[in-house]
Structure formats: structure tokens, C-alpha cells
Amino acid sequence: LISRPAGLNRLPAMSKRAAKARLVPASAAPTATLVARLSRQDLERLLVRSVESGAVHRDDVLSLLPEAKQQAELPRLKHVGVSAARSGTGYFDDIDDDLLVKMILAKMPSDSRFVCAISTCKAWRSLRDAPELWSDIVVSSTGSLSRRGWGVMNGTHLLKLVAWLRNPGGVHSLSVEAGDSINPDAIKKALAAMPSLTSLSLSGKKITNAVLTHMAKQPAAKKLLRLSLDASGSVHAADALKLLEAAPNLTSLSLSSHLASDTSLMQLAAAAAAARGGGSPLLSELRLTRSFGGTCSWRCLSRLGDLFPELELLHVHNVSDNHYGDTCAASITAALARGAPFSVARLPRLRTLQIDELCGFTCNLGSDELESALGAVVAACPALQSLSVTHGAMWTGGSNPAPWQPLPTATRCLDELPASLEKLSLEQITLAPDALKACTLPRLRSLRLRDCGAETEMRTLAAELTEACPMLEEDKVQVHAYTGRRR
To answer: Are 447 and 462 in contact (CB under 8 A)?
Structure first.
């Protein structure tokens, strides 16, 4: 948040009226105020002592309660629903299965549902036949997903779970964090047993090329609408492409960056268009996540609008042409040398854009390259509502560190920010004093600037933008001064 300068953080001198108020004894407060300050436990103890001592009559207490709550035991709740599927389960006997399953248990984590079905009394075993409880399965080898899933599991546990399910074909969403414990054979058998999957998430070292090739041959591949692959570096882009081509109806895709080459995305778009008789791919969400050595090139980013014109959300971990060279935007540098501006295919439906890194591992982006690239990206997104761009910082450690390159400066590249923008976050990009003055942002509601220059300049820039944007409140503005953070 925009905070007052350090000199203004001191408390003002206490006024005479405030000083006089502090001298008023607590006993002068009204009784109602004192009672309101007591905790419920203290109030209950006070009332019990008052009734037992005779200061308060018992009849006065009873008069404040409805007749149904004046007895020693409360009455049983009335039956809800058309029939009781359980007996001997206390108050749960009175709740119909439809209400219990759809309104209560279906909203619980899947491991808690499993406990209700097998680790309680026999009257609850009928929950095994409720398809609403077992349509979403989350498993993890490390327990990192245990709050949503089944706790720590291995391959044997996964197969036992699949065998326990009354109807594995009713599972529509499966998430497997394989780690080192859930072996590929168990994963393949589980995938083969679930032909109705529409959402699939696979991650961990045990997600191998064989697993992806096997899934590509399953009937569920054509039904997939959401797919997330966070595989290790041993998985080849060619094998991932087999699965992507077999899933032409995807609307949401999350890929490790090393699997998302220019060629694989082009072939994915071509396969999706062919499956739809020449129509545009349906993909509306694309996430290219972090992976060792994996980046999205500027050439690839510039073509996404042509490949996937329906994109509404784009999240890219790193955009660079050469992650380990002296320059991380060789294609842009070459275009500028030829006098040709860098261009990006239009993304007319894009609402959310997030880029986590623009730098390479051993180099920062130059100011000229930033102006050309970021300006082209902004101009290509006329309906943008949320923009988050972080430049990052090059590595300067090791036995032979590379010389530090300054962070790039943004001057005119943000001039064409669309009027639809509601949220703006910039980090580790030096902003010129007038970098945002040309913007007209009537809907902007949130602003975050971190490591974007000197503190005084950033606070001045933020204050000017707050004044110019009618919907931007001061409590929605965050400014963090430049700290010179490096890797």
C-alpha cells in the first residue's frame, strides 16, 4: 500500500480532549457497554451464579427460551427427504441421501468422503454407490495434495482405490501427483479404467513417455476438456504431442515449458482445427509452467493469436529466445537492427495475461527490446482485464559470474494499455516518470508496482495514476521500492 513518508508515521500529539478522556475511570462506562465487552463464557458463568444465588429468577430465564428448548432433552429433528437410507447413525438418520450426498459430502475433500464410506458404521456403506462422490479423484505420492486427495499413496494404493470404486467409468476428473512412488504401470491401469475422463492432471517423475503414449490411445483422450502435464525433463515433446493431438477438444491446457515448442503448439492447433472440420481450436486457457531449461520463445508468443484465437487466459513462466546466452531476445534484437518492428498476432478475446519472467538465466532484457516486445504484446490484446509482467533478474553468482546488466526501462510501451484493464502488476521493470501518463484506464481497480525504480518516483507515479483512475482506491495500490534483488 502507499504508505506515508517515514517522518509522518509518528503519532500526533494527544489532544486535550483525548487526554481528558483517558483519565475517566472505567466504572463510569454504561452497564450495557461493560456487558458487551464480556466474553460469552464469562456471561454464561455470571448468569448461572446469579440464578443459583437467587439474584435472577429461573422463570425469567425460561421466559426467554422457546417452549421446545425448555426441556432437559432437545427433540429429534424432523425427517428431511423422501426416505431414510441409514439407521442407527443418530441425527443423520433423518437426512435423506440426496441431501447428505449432494449438499454436504460432495463438498468435502475426497479423502474425507472415502473415510465416511469405509471407516464408519455399515449404515454408511451405501455411499459407495453415490456417483456424485467419486467423480473427482485426487491422489498424491507425497501427501502434498492430501487436503484435497487421499493422502500419501503408492501404485498399489491407487489400484486398490480403482478396484474399490463401484463405477470407475463415472470418474470425470483425475489428478495424479506421481512423485517417486506411484509407478507408471499403476497409472496406466487407472487411466484405462476411466473412459469418461474430461479433466486430467499428471505430474511427477513417474509420468513417463509410456504413460503419455498409453493415454493417447484411450477413448477418454477425445473427451478431454482440461489437461495439465507437469512432467520431468525426461519426457519428450514428441510423446506429449501424441496425447495433445489425440485431444482436439481441449479448452484448458497446462504444459511444462520444455514440452511447448513452436512446432508442438503448431501441430496441436492443426490437429484441433482438423478435428473440428477446419474450425478454430477451442482452447481458451493456456499455461506454460516452469521447467528446467524450458522457455517460450518470442517467436512462439507472437504466433499464439493465430494458433489459438479463442484464448482468454495466458500464463507463461518465461519468455526468452536464449536462456543461457548474452542476450535473451535475439529475434527482437535482429528485427530492430533491420528496422522492422516486432509484431504479435492479435488476441481479441484475451482477458488475463501473466508473464513471470522476461530475463534469461545469464542476461537481462535490454530497454529497446522491452519497448518493442511489451508494446507489441499490449497492442495485440484490446480486451485485456488483468496484466501481470515480471522481468526477473539474471544470475550473478557462481565462480565466474556474468557482469550485472541493468533492468530494462519502460517508457512508451504501456501507452496502449486498453481501457478495459482492471488489474495491473509490474515487477523489476524500471518505469520512466511518464511511463503511465498516456494511459486512459477508467476501470482500473488494482495496481501493484514492485522493484520498478526509486521509492519516491514510484509513489509519485502511483499517486498520479490513482488521481486519474476513478475506480482505483488507495487501499488497492501496492508500491514496493527497488531493492536491487538478484538471483
So the answer is: yes
In the chain, % of residues over pLDDT 70: 86
pLDDT at 135 over 70: yes
Q: What is the C-alpha separation between 299 and 309, in angstroms, rounded?
A: 16
**Cα separation, 16 vs 189, whole angstroms:** 79
- The three cell numbers locating residue 372: 518493442
Mean pLDDT score, 287-312:
87
Give the Å distances, CA to CA, from 411 to 6, 54, 119, 173, 327.
29, 79, 63, 46, 21
What Å distances lie between residue 107 and 103, 128, 221, CA to CA? 7, 16, 27
Which residues make Cβ contacts (< 8 Å) with residue 205, sequence separation at least 6?
178, 179, 180, 232, 234
Cell numbers found for residue 415: 501507452
> What pLDDT score was predicted for residue 21?
47
The CB-based long-range contact list for 403-407 (8 Å cut-off, 24+ gap) reads 404/486, 405/363, 405/364, 406/364, 406/430, 407/364, 407/451
Calculate ∠ Cα 286-290-291, nearest 5°: 120
Cell of 270: 492443426
DSSP states along 291-341: -TT--B-HHHHHHHHHH-TT--EEEEEEB-S-TTSS-S-HHHHHHHHHTPP
Q: In angstroms, what CA-CA distances link 168 with 189, 197, 230, 331?
A: 11, 10, 24, 49
Helical H runs in 39-86?
40-53, 58-63
Cα separation, 138 vs 205, whole angstroms:
17
Cβ-based neighbours of 268, under 8 Å, separated by 6 or more = 241, 244, 245, 281, 307
* pLDDT for position 89: 67
Which residues, in sequence order, are CB contacts of 57 under 8 Å at separation 6+?
51
Judge contact between 186 and 159, C-beta under 8 A.
yes
Give me the percent of the chain exceeding a pLDDT of 90: 43
The residue whose grid cell reads 447413525 is: 89
- Asked whether residue 190 carries a pLDDT value surpassing 90, the answer given is yes
0.85 exceeded by pTM: no
Cα 395–Cα 401–Cα 404 angle in degrees, nearest 5: 60
Residues 6+ apart with CB under 8 A from 473: 445, 466
Reference 274, options 238, 296, 305, 249; nearest CA is 249
Task: Please say whether the beta carbons of 349 and 379 come within 8 A.
Answer: no
Q: Output the pLDDT for position 403.
A: 82
Mark out the alpha helices in 321-394 (DSSP H runs). 330-338, 367-379
Strands 409-410 and 430-431, how do they pair?
Answer: parallel
> In this structure, how many other beta carbons lie within 10 angstroms of the beta carbon of residue 388?
16
The backbone torsions φ and ψ at residue 264, rounded to the nearest 5 degrees and listed phi first, read -65, -40
Q: Bridge-partner residues for 227, per DSSP?
A: 200, 253
